[in-house]
Design a protein that fits this description.
149 residues, mainly alpha, two-stranded antiparallel sheet, globular
Length: 149
């Protein structure tokens, strides 16, 4: 019985978190693929377009299109790969970091407003207490999932 309960809980968590992420991202002012690329570069440092495509789970052509747009906006820059001259490394620019910070702040503001309006003090405490659990689940899934995300 416990396995069934865990599976049901997992499905409810997946649906709820997915809906929350989609609603919060609806406040974004840039396409999700572009924001994701800036996020990868911010967190992980320089990457190739192929690395970005693999991490996002999209085609190289799709990632290259988004990179081209980001580059045209001055949000990323390229430099030759140090060990493979056929490749380019993507770097987030200061303007890209600023734009990513704006996107993240917009998401946080939207979510913070919702938390203040929809949850009472005890519920906010419950939510805060759940965050370490969600972090542990994330860490476990990252460690056991061979596909980088």
């Amino acid at each position: 019985m416990k396995g069934t309960e865990d599976t049901q809980l997992a499905e409810e968590l997946r649906q709820t978190v997915g809906q929350l992420v989609r609603v919060v991202r609806a406040t974004d002012t840039m396409p999700p693929g572009e924001a994701a690329i800036l996020g990868y570069l911010d967190r992980e440092g320089p990457l190739t377009t192929a690395d970005v495509a693999q991490q996002r789970g999209v085609s190289h052509q799709s990632a290259a299109k988004a990179v081209k747009e980001l580059s045209a906006q001055g949000l990323v820059r390229t430099e030759p790969h140090p060990s493979d001259g056929r490749k380019l490394l993507l770097h987030i620019t200061p303007a890209g970091s600023d734009r990513l910070a704006q996107e993240r702040q917009g998401r946080a503001d939207s979510l913070g407003t919702a938390i203040s309006a929809a949850l009472d003090t005890a519920e906010r405490g419950t939510l805060a207490a759940a965050l370490p659990l969600l972090s542990r689940l994330t860490a476990y899934l990252k460690a056991t999932n061979p596909r980088p995300r």
